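Before the break, one more example. Copy the sequence into your notebook; we will annotate it together after we see the structure.
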Amino acid sequence: MADFGLYAYQEEVVERALKGENIIIWLPTGGGKTRAAVYVAKRHLETKARAKVVVLVNKVHLVDQHYSKEFEPHLGGSYNIGKVSGECEEKDFFGIVVNSKDVIICTAQILYNALINEEESKHVELSDITLLIIDECHHTHKESVYNKIMRCYVEKKLKGERPLPQILGLTASPGTGGAKILESAVDHVLEICANLDSAIVSTKNYAPELKENTPKPIKTFDIVEKRPADPFGDHLKWMMELIHGYMDLPKDVRLRECGTQDYEADVVVLEQQGVRESNRMLAQCALHLRQYNDALLINDTLRMMDAYRSLEEYYNLKSGTAIDGTDWFLLGLFQENQMELRRLATDPTFENPKMAMLESILLKQFGPGLQSRGILFCRTRKSTHSLNDWVLKNGALQAAGIKAAMLTGAGNGITHMTQHEQADTIRNFRRGTLNLLISTSVAEEGLDIPECNLVVRYGLLTNEIAQQQASGRARAKNSQYSVVAQAGGREVCREHINEYLEELTGKAIAKVQSMSHQEFLRKINELQTQAILTNKVLEIRKKEKRSCCAAFDVQLVCRNCFKTVASGSDIKLLDKMHYVNINPGFRQHYKVGGQVVLPRNFEDWEPGQTISCNNGNCDKNWGFEMKYKKIVTLPNVAIKNFAIQVAPNDRMTVKKWKDVPFTVEDFSFEEYYQEYLPDAFD
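Here is what the structure looks like once it is written out:
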């Protein structure tokens, strides 16, 4: 192993995997888990007949990273290595790719789709794979795609079906699953082991070497006192009280403190209640209160002007969409107070003290002659935009040579980054063209980011896994890990809880490792049997829920204006993915807007224009049109934008189509043409 460059602690943790055992490698961030996995893959390919290695990742950008940084450099000379993600065409014939390669690196969703797809060119069996490597395997729980894949594995194992691939999991921390006591934390670790059908291993004999190679940063709590006065925030709260009065809330409704996540949860429930009860005043007021609460949360973390702009942007979009008196009241309230809010937001006397503290921390690390790199972690994409704007406009930070860029998750939304944008940003950070990443949680896990001198957690309340991952990014010598928080605030409390949970995780793993082999296997089998039975019961309940209403008895109602616009029977499931309305009459209910631009192309369809409700001034976004097979245009609708009416006075709301109370049938291209375009078959 020496010629491969492994440390002694890495050699120790791969020993059982080299013997063909299923294991989870537990090493801290920066401990070289991926390199150890590459070595296991190499030995597996050398010794196993007809070896086939599949490496699963949970984020798109990690496909290319593992390929170009680890597997291709070390194995590419001797083996045929492929990479497949949702952004490349190979996904459309994944079964062929698996047959033609020795090692395949892909997102977990690609493999899961292949396991359940019956088309020969796309289908893959678990028995086709001899070694399955699962990166960041602590995500193998509940309904994650990792767990769906492993559920297929466990079902086959319990039925005695063979062959099955060897499993190699990689994690910096399995966490405690929310447990606060050792016994429950042990149960959580055992559950992760059962889901992965693996034992968890760590270094016993070379802990000092591991510690030397994964130094911990110097942790500081950078505390600011609460600002003495907050007239901007107070004015927002006063406006919220006016809305509360207008709503005439029932006495049994108790909203928690404004400017908190608890309050946000309360108004989300109120909006759903308003939709269910056809009470548009309640629903609309709740939506607007959520925007004010967002502004208060931004005001607590960022600049007052950032909070003001979030409201201004919202009401600019709302301008001209008033339907009834509630809309006029809410729009009027903002417009009447807009000038005062702007005046208060631009008064430097009451600016957020956290921003001054953040500036001070950055200036200590950056400056002429200092070659520093840092990551600033914040909660939302909106926060990354605001902080990036602040850095660009801050003269002192610019003079210190800070070159910042945002790093957020990949996706199709306006505020998402494409995979290529992410790669460019990280490449520039590695080269030194950029020296500060302003990031959401996307940079916490897995990303191959150079050693940082500074990691700042700013306005974050996350679990112990996220905290450990973020801390592990500060790998340079004498690096700093800073928590910026208000005195007595929840962030400091959460950070201390996470420190305790990190210790508890270690103790729980030690307990699991100390179990006898027989006891461990018995417990794992027990948990696996229980999980499969539980899943079957849940599937039966889901089917019962989906069949409790006939599709033609269900009506879809615009969630904003409450106009009935479609029947449940109009909705069909296209390619197991898109929920489309096939009724040509639906077209009269919507208007089209701008062209949807997505960062990649698709096999059978292309996006069209956005669609929104055309009832009066409603303008509620519903989804977008899609052109299928270059022939037919169908509206692709999101159920979160509608209410489901199952009876005259019985409405419900769901976030996802899988939760609707009726069965959505698969789209049939031939049936669609026979019903709506019969002349096409003449």
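The chain has a mean pLDDT of 91. The first strand starts at residue 23 and ends at 26. Try to locate both features in your own notes.
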